[in-house]
Amino acid sequence: MVNRTVYDALVKNYRAHFGREPEVVAYAPGRIEVLGNHTDYNEGFVFSAAINFGTFFAASKSASASCRLVAGDLMKEVAFDVAGIGASKTDTWQNYVKGTFAGLTAVKAVPCGFDGMFLGNIPLGSGLSSSAALEMCAGLALGKLYGIGVDTVTLAKIGQKAEHVYAGCKCGLLDQISSLAGQAGKLVKTDFRSLVYETVEMGGDACFLMCNTHAKHALVDGAYNSRREACEQAAAHFASVLRHPVHALRDVSMAEWVLYKRGLPETVANRAAHPIGEDERVLKGAELLAAGDLAGFGALMFDSHESSRVLFENSCEELDAVVDAAKKIPGVMGARISGGGFGGSAVVLVHPRDAETAAAALANAYAARFGVPCDVSVITPAAGAHVVK
Ligand code: ADP
Ligand code: MG
Is the pLDDT reported for residue 219 higher than 70? Predict the structure, then answer.
């Protein structure tokens, strides 16, 4: 079992706190974005992976309509009623579970409350999606507890709605789908138009380093929204000049961008080139993985970062420094922004035998430049969410 020690600690704490065994336990991992940046809302493609860090959720039915929920890492408890599952302004960790529970009860009413506790080892707020892991392990555990069966995409959407409505974060579906669909040693390739996903063998000996810079640049929300608007403006332009239907930038090829970008402001054209290029890189990356060409796949990751840096302008000094340092470290095959950008994390593709030395070299190079090291975690693509007990 992945993260056996976390599971054992959770069951022990659950027993001590509630005085009984949990009826069900479910697990969900965090995720990394590997290739395909800002493609989700352009209805394109993303390569991601479930990771070897995750969260467990243990639960039993309670004797009344009230629910008790404990954050095991904090050993803090909150209580709420099945009839009134509203978002809370304090102990905001509860909102991810409440939002997911509310989504399940909309599918089927529940007869009673639950005693729940969760525990995990994903660093919080560092771009590994601890929030989606929490939603998905709660969703699987509570779905099992009450006999509410939902398919993968429906559960992912319930988690997304919990983020939007309960946590106030307008995220896409990538985090939840990756957490649910991941498999050991495989990447998840998702089509964000159809929401059809598949797992793809890494086809070689590789793992990732996730480098959290902790950089958070001002105006992140405004910059994110302005990128979305530029993509929409460009899609409308291409819809008016191309002879085939264009609903989103997914429908525009790089060759068409070159021929038909005239009439768009230069900045808007450059913004559009990023998701268009990323889609092509994901499709090319799938071919390279099938051929066992990890070095070729890594080169696409470097190209992806360059596109972020120059065209989409969602990189920053700290992320560029990680990628530049990675290029000089033996054994590194690729590196790029992972996630929205403007700060946050970079993901590095490396041979497992080089992972520890490369991680130390990256942290040192970063510290030499900025005075503090970035946090580097060694990540292996691992099993997706599942019911454990
Ligand atoms: P990320 O998803 O990248 O980790 P978010 O800000 O979206 O960052 O979600 C982090 C939040 O999720 C935390 O601040 C906390 O409220 C909640 N959370 C997730 N996992 C746990 C956990 N194991 N214990 C307590 N809170 C958690
Ligand atoms: Mg999150």
Answer: no
